[in-house]
């Protein structure tokens, strides 16, 4: 890490620790919530904390395969719950994950299609995005982010984030980490004794004049069968940046819906069946005017089955089946000249109405079981299973269109895993192995590979003295394995617009291997100043070496060893190639202090990274995000019916990013619950109207500035009986 970044990181860290001490050991940018143990938590022996001031970090991770809470996990994990989502009045995934350390969301001006960056890694499956157990693998090659997903925050109950390759039980390829979205259930709307409930929500945003309307209905047929239906419509015009300039192409309209049913065939089993769909349309801008009309349709079907038995500690079986279908139609609105046939190189004009279609179908199956037992005083949680994901990609379009950027083909990835979590008094050890294999099949060639990846974690609670007995220290070494994508392997042809130059396929690409060392701590304290307050802290330092890292490079036609032959207007070629490694390291901190009067929060992340070629040449890694420090303070009044507060987030320029700038955002929020059936929310984002851009968008052809000051007002009414 460069000296300036180190100094800045130490200053930020010191300021953070001081703030924690001064604010009653203040906290990460996450609000407090009373924990509600889940079935898995009860099986794992998690007890609900005694103090009323238990915090968000105590919340059981809903998709955790060992039923642990974030504060108990010997890993860098975060949990975003329903209260946070509502308080942020989130309209996009970026707003859902704001303030989570080590996590940044890259999106274009439209904001809804997003790519998640964890610790400087993103795109092509490096971060596994999972919605109700379904992998989100849509990918369209373009300038900027490559792999995007869409999920409406109105459908989401909670988000769990696992940073680094330690999540090797969740599937193949996630060398950066895993983000799991869990959607709402009927029981989230039904009160005790109710058989039906409806909820209506309306929101308005001043910047972009954005409207959101949402309607939800839940019905409980009996104790073993309930259903939920939801529909959301968002209509946004182009927003203005901090200088008051309208950002073209930032408007959109989205129609989303969800149907979900929970069935309990026996007292020990649960089956959840779900459908999530969305239809979205928007325009893309070229030379300052609309050039394309785009229409995205996506349908996700999921089935999740769980079988447990209190009398059989060896049985906690889970089976997930999913199918995700995403189709994007891109239609030119005007004749597009200055293009070239990707095969012949001859000038071509695309007529208005030309269409390109991207169609990706993803099927997945994930099966695992956790057995809990004791040997010689040591408690075991043994998790074992397997998973398989298949992508079927088809792209169609005219010559000189954009279809060839995203080559079609079939991709299969799968694997098996086993992990044992051993607990003995003050010592906890997690040991695991994962086997991965993959195959890629394009129109002209095939490739495949496999590997075994280990994980070992050791955690200790070395102190018995009051105030220190809840301090837990851990260290981890973990490896992850990502296969090359279809696009990285098979892209070919001439660049069709602006200037022509060849894209070269590379069927000899090696898979990436992430090798991460991490050291961290967890700390809890209850009853610090009053009986019902609580403090939770997590911190970690990590070092990730990604060997055979894949990135795009420009090759010179004048270099006889490059394999590039001049075939376009300029003497270069583009090809995805392996680097010897990408080296990424950083520090993350999150904490939360909660009491009856309110909550305070503090989080921070400092990340640095670069690539090293096989010849030893070092280069900056373009996907390194801003260093961030986020603070939050909230107050509760009138028996928790009124909550008001504010947020401050500082974002530091990444090293080596000439287009990036430092910036600070200030937000405010308020929420009033008039009664059990009416809630009003108010929020102001970017109060000081700062003009800023996400540094990750520096790879795009032009700078995309984010929204300026935005006022939000919303209300939710429910009825039930």
Give the SSE map.
Elements (H helix, E strand, L loop, with lengths): L2 H20 L16 H6 L32 E4 L1 H7 L4 H4 L6 E5 L6 E5 L8 E5 L2 E2 L20 E8 L13 E7 L12 E10 L4 E13 L2 E12 L15 E12 L5 E18 L2 E20 L7 E17 L3 E5 L6 E4 L4 E21 L2 E19 L12 E16 L2 E15 L4 E15 L11 E11 L3 H5 L2 E2 L7 E3 L7 E15 L7 E14 L2 E7 L15 E7 L2 E15 L2 E15 L5 E3 L6 E11 L4 E11 L10 E13 L2 E8 L24 E11 L1
Parallel strand pairs: 4-7, 24-28
Antiparallel strand pairs: 1-6, 2-3, 4-5, 6-7, 8-9, 8-36, 9-10, 10-11, 11-12, 12-13, 13-14, 14-17, 15-16, 17-18, 18-19, 19-20, 20-21, 21-22, 22-25, 23-24, 25-26, 26-29, 27-28, 29-30, 30-31, 30-32, 32-33, 33-34, 34-35, 35-36
Percent of residues in helices: under 10%
| Proportion of strand residues | over 45%
**Morphology call:** globular
Number of strands: 36
Could you name the ranges where pLDDT drops below 50 across 5 or more consecutive residues?
Answer: 1-53
Overall mean pLDDT stands at 86
If helices are DSSP runs of H or I spanning 4 or more residues, what is the number of helices? Answer: 5
Radius of gyration: 25 Å
Report the major sheet: 22 strands, antiparallel, barrel
Distance from first to last alpha carbon: 59 Å
Main location: membrane
InterPro entries: Beta-barrel_TonB, Beta-barrel_TonB_sf, Plug_dom, Plug_dom_sf, TonB-dep_rcpt-like, TonB_haem/Hb_rcpt, TonB_Hb/transfer/lactofer_rcpt
Family: Belongs to the TonB-dependent receptor family.
Keywords: Cell outer membrane, Membrane, Receptor, Signal, TonB box, Transmembrane, Transmembrane beta strand, Transport
